[in-house]
Amino acid sequence: MEAFVTLVATDSYCPGALVLAHRLRDLNTTRPIVCLVTPEVSKNACLQLAKVCNVVHVNTLRSNDDANLQLLGRPELDITFTKLHAWRLTQYTKIVFLDADTLPLRNVDDLFDWPAFSAAPDAGWPDCFNSGVFVAEPSESVYSELVELASQRGSFDGGDQGLLNTYFSEWSTSPEHRLPFIYNTTPTAQYSYAPAHVQYRNSIAISHFIGQDKPWKWQMFSDGKVFPRGNAWPGLCELVQCWWDTWKKHYGEVRKSRKQFLYRSVSLLALVF
Ligand SMILES: O=c1ccn([C@@H]2O[C@H](COP(=O)(O)OP(=O)(O)O[C@H]3O[C@H](CO)[C@@H](O)[C@H](O)[C@H]3O)[C@@H](O)[C@H]2O)c(=O)[nH]1
Ligand SMILES: [Mn+2]
């Protein structure tokens, strides 16, 4: 059996996982969806998640690597080592891991045709893979080796991506394990090559909102259209709109804020749970 797997280590990423799971289902996946959940996640969030996926409780794995996380500018990503628990899901022969901030734009069951370990290049350093989308075969021994490597050498970015790139270092020289970029496009990357996003828009399989600006932090006008954040370019607004349309489809319209003009996403969890 094969499964999609995601991770919710804090309530703040729960909306992401809910939209991801609904989206996979709306796009008619034939595979079960597993959500790894840590003890930090509230009971209410777990209840909501359990309605759309199989919740698997795991303990939090932290990198405790403040220096490298500082370099990455993301101190909150110390908990991403928890992702390693995906290798312990040995009841599945193959898994496709998707970060909670990914949004499939079409059915992506074809990812299961790829060999383990497969991943797509990272936009910031294409000789490294981005660890938000990968194909893997669960294995207790790989899990143990990853944990061992983490304790011996740590991660060069303080998160799972640095560790996994060190462990699967042959990835960069094995083309058969290199997923096309359309499986993990990153429209929020600092250098995101906007013209290519426009040119290949219809080929994108998965959009991945890397960085701190997650779709659930955006606001919306009362007509349901997203309020462009910062210098967001039109293609990005369209993708965030797609995320919000999925949310609205399954959880209804978000209540009007006191200002009457904008729907506030910040109170989104409170509105649903
Ligand atoms: O407070 C948190 C932080 C992260 N997560 C989970 O961990 C994932 C990774 O965090 P995210 O904010 O998505 O990281 P990115 O901005 O995507 O940054 C990059 O760097 C991370 C650390 O190496 C990798 O985990 C990512 O896959 C990679 O894209 C999320 O999607 C969630 O599934 C939580 O549940 N709560
Ligand atoms: Mn991510």
UniProtKB/TrEMBL annotation:
Protein localization: Cytoplasm
Gene3D superfamilies according to UniProt: Spore Coat Polysaccharide Biosynthesis Protein SpsA, Chain A
Cofactor list: Mn(2+)
Principal location: cytoplasm
Annotated GO biological process: glycogen biosynthetic process
Catalytic activity: L-tyrosyl-[glycogenin] + UDP-alpha-D-glucose = alpha-D-glucosyl-L-tyrosyl-[glycogenin] + UDP + H(+); [1,4-alpha-D-glucosyl](n)-L-tyrosyl-[glycogenin] + UDP-alpha-D-glucose = [1,4-alpha-D-glucosyl](n+1)-L-tyrosyl-[glycogenin] + UDP + H(+)
Cellular component annotations (GO), alphabetically ordered: cytoplasm
Single Gene Ontology MF annotation: metal ion binding
Listed Pfam families: Glyco_transf_8 (PF01501)
PANTHER family noted in UniProt: GLYCOGENIN SUBFAMILY MEMBER
Family according to the record: Belongs to the glycosyltransferase 8 family. Glycogenin subfamily.
Protein name: glycogenin glucosyltransferase
Species this protein is from: Phycomyces blakesleeanus (strain ATCC 8743b / DSM 1359 / FGSC 10004 / NBRC 33097 / NRRL 1555)
